[in-house]
Design goal:
This protein is α+β, with helices and mostly antiparallel strands. Among the domains are: about 170 residues, no CATH class; about 100 residues, no CATH class. Helices cover about 40% and strands about 15% of the residues. The strands form 4 sheets. Strands 1, 3, 7, 8, 9, 10 and 11 form a 7-stranded antiparallel sheet that branches. A two-stranded antiparallel sheet has the order 2-4. Strand 10 and strand 11 form a beta hairpin. The radius of gyration is 23 Å and the shape is globular. It starts with a strand and ends in a 31-residue tail after the last helix. The relative contact order is 0.11. The structure holds adenosine monophosphate and magnesium ion (MG). Adenosine monophosphate (AMP) binds next to loops.
Length: about 475
């Protein structure tokens, strides 16, 4: 494996170098062998990864450090944050020539720990492990995880829990909040830092008339694409603070996230978000707000590039909404099996989503039924409508849908295959993760392994692996799985 620890070579005010504080008696949780292969990381013995993930062994060539960053949390300036319980262990070049960060989470106190204990608990580590894997397999830009370990280290949350660690892999851990930290605490470092980010992650911007504006534009476009992908699959991040959004658009920091079951635009999975700021339907506008905060951080670069002005940065920000809509429409036309430039796709999909909302239907299953030999799937959906009136509305929808299908000129086979590639069968429903967590807390990791395998190919039916709970929304009379910021 080839290391390239370039962050460790930046201005030393930006981080604090330190070794991990190991966990006691680590126990192997699960390991993502395909990711190890992609990283070209070979282990001599099968379980050699365990002491590394427990922080007991730091491989040669690694240069662990905690990054400083700041951010706006729930709309308020939160001051210095930073890696309070994780360390960037190393940066490596993977098999595709791509720079990847190896970040170990749960390895003790750092100068950025504030009131925290520097640890992570098994429950939240498994949630992050499965979510990064699920999004990656869905083709959504995301951090992924090489593996996780449990341990006998006690960690106090609402109750005493097991300490655990995971090794997160992402193309970057640089957050929008890194720029906020620099402007507040080391403003003279901003030009060099920005140049380094462009060099590492946005090389194509280097030749632009204004590399900084091109970089800003690229960050906007990447974020718009990721948020559109979240909306299409029903993913709610839960804590879209500026310190939790990466500059490369990769989904980071899985806390109180959720995959929506019954379609409900105001759905909030995070029980700590009392005001509902981060509900599913707000995600695009929150991303816009975060990017507005971030672009403001680039303004001081006017001293090194006069093209960077309030006006030019505003112009960049104004591309977010059309870019988001473009990506969302593109994705939605695939979900509906229609051509991307066809008129009426967005309106028709909104009608469908409103039907799902009023009839409390499952987002994932309903889109899948829409492609299910059309007539059969449509009949099932119609039967799930709660009243005659709703059935009639569904009939109006299918009549319009039929018209668009005819206009598309696509064959049934083409349409079905397009839809089956865009509409997953399996998503990480809260109760799926919860069952895997409960078994793991009792020492049995086999359910984590099963769910991991199931979610590796979410568009393919896996009769032999699937259980009824994998494809059914939680019943309304079941108490919801409570997910909060506690992790
Ligand atoms: P999060 O809400 O997980 O995105 O974390 C926000 C900030 O709190 C980041 O700076 C984290 O590093 C820090 N943090 C969260 N949990 C802990 C913990 N248990 N110990 C130390 N720092 C933490
Ligand atoms: Mg965070």
């Amino acid at each position: 494996m080839k290391t390239d620890n370039r962050y460790a070579r930046l201005d030393s005010r930006l981080f604090h170098k330190q070794p991990p504080e190991p966990l006691s008696n680590p126990i192997a949780g699960h390991f993502n062998a395909a990711l190890a292969e992609q990283l070209d990381w070979q282990f001599t013995d099968a379980n050699d990864w365990v002491p590394i993930l427990a922080g007991q062994v730091v491989p040669e060539g690694f240069d662990p450090l905690a990054m400083a960053y700041a951010g706006h949390q729930f709309g308020q300036w939160a001051g210095q944050l930073g890696d309070g319980r994780g360390l960037l262990l190393a940066q490596i070049i993977d098999k595709n020539g791509q720079l990847q960060d190896l970040h170990l989470k749960g390895v003790g106190l750092t100068p950025y720990s504030r009131m925290g204990d520097g640890r992570a608990v098994l429950r939240s580590v498994i949630r992050e492990y499965l979510a990064g894997h699920a999004l990656t397999a869905l083709g959504i830009a995301s951090s992924n995880t090489l593996g996780f370990v449990s341990s006998s280290t006690p960690v106090q949350r609402e109750k005493l829990e097991r300490g655990a660690c995971l090794l997160r892999v992402a193309d970057s851990h640089v957050r929008l909040g890194h720029f906020e930290w620099i402007n507040k605490f080391a403003p003279d470092a901003l030009p060099d830092f920005t140049t380094a980010m462009i060099e590492s992650y946005f090389t194509e911007c280097q030749s632009a008339e204004s590399p900084i504006l091109a970089f800003a534009q690229a960050v906007i476009a990447k974020t718009a694409k990721t948020i559109a992908d979240w909306q299409l699959v029903g993913f709610a991040h839960g804590v879209m603070n500026t310190d939790n959004l990466s500059i490369t658009g990769s989904t980071l920091d899985f806390g109180p996230y959720g995959f929506m079951e019954r379609f409900e635009p105001t759905w909030i999975n995070n029980h700590s978000d009392h005001s509902g700021r981060y509900v599913y339907q707000n995600q695009p506008s929150i991303a816009h707000w975060n990017l507005w905060v971030w672009l403001g951080q680039l303004l001081p670069l006017n001293t090194v590039d006069p093209l960077v002005t309030k006006e030019s940065l505003s112009a960049v920000l104004s591309t977010f909404e059309p870019e988001f809509l473009h990506q969302y429409t593109l994705g939605m036309s695939k979900k509906m099996g229609l051509n991307e430039d066809q008129k009426g796709v967005l309106e028709l999909s909104s009608d469908f989503l409103r039907i799902l909302e009023r009839n409390r239907l499952d987002l994932t299953n309903s889109f899948r039924l829409l492609s299910d030999d059309s007539e059969q799937g449509w009949r099932l959906l119609r039967l799930e409508c709660i009243s005659i009136e709703e059935m009639e509305k569904f009939d109006t929808f299918t009549a319009q849908y039929q018209t668009l299908i005819s206009e598309s000129g696509l064959s049934d086979t083409q349409r079905k295959s397009m839809m089956d590639d865009a509409n997953p069968i399996y998503v990480l429903r809260n109760h799926i993760a919860q069952t895997a967590i409960e078994r793991a807390e009792a020492g049995d990791f086999s359910e984590v392994a099963r769910v991991f395998d199931l979610l590796a190919t979410p568009f393919t039916r896996q009769i032999e692996r699937e259980t009824p709970a994998d494809i059914a929304p939680m019943s309304d009379d079941h108490p919801p799985v409570s997910v909060s910021c506690s992790s």
